[in-house]
Structures are given as structure tokens and as C-alpha cells.
Amino acid sequence: MPSTVEINKCGHCAGCGTCRNAANNMSCANCARRGLFRKFHPADGLVCSICNGTGFIEPIAFRLTHRTGPVLAIFVMATAIVTVVLGHQNHFSEVLAFLGTLTGAITGFYFSRKE
Hints:
The mean pLDDT is 77. The chain has helices spanning 29-34, 60-86, 92-111; strands at 8-9, 56-57. It folds into two domains: 1-58, no CATH class; 59-115. The chain has a two-stranded antiparallel sheet with strand order 1-2. The protein is mainly alpha-helical.
């Protein structure tokens, strides 16, 4: 299933990456607060806190669908490693064979895609 990325221009900084929303083209209070320049407000030329200076915004649905799978895979892999290290010695060979197959399937899925 091909996925198309809808990247939109940041409305806060108009796609330039630098906040100039306060009076006299200064940075707004929100960007000054996130940039740890609260004492020095009004500040000029701070990075936009909405897009982190890129000028573009990914929709939240795109981020969720493309980050949930890898995070889940990392969790499964970490659980597998902990199970092998701390597992019972009675069924060690069966557990190791199962987790080896699971690790191979996850690795093959995420690294064999052609995009």
C-alpha cells in the first residue's frame, strides 16, 4: 500500500522556520518560552516552536501510522532479549528458537521494503 506524505507549510511561521509573529517582526511569546528565552522577551529570530524550524508540518495521523509499528517492533525485540537473558533454563532451546524466528521476521519485514 503506497503512502503519500502530505506535508503542509507551517502556518505559524509561513514556512520559513523563523517565528516573526509578534509586533515589529519579533518572535512570539510562545516561541520565546519554548526557546528558553522567557526573560529576554521580546526576542528576534527564534526557531518556530510549532515546526521546530523546518517550515513544514506532518499531520498527526501520518506520524502515528508510521511510528507505531517500529516502536512496537522495538518493544517486542527488547522483550525477547530480556526473556532470553532472564529466562528459565528448562526450555531455553525452545524459547531461543522461537525468539530467533520472531527476530528474523521483524527484521525482514522492516529492512526488506523497497520505497
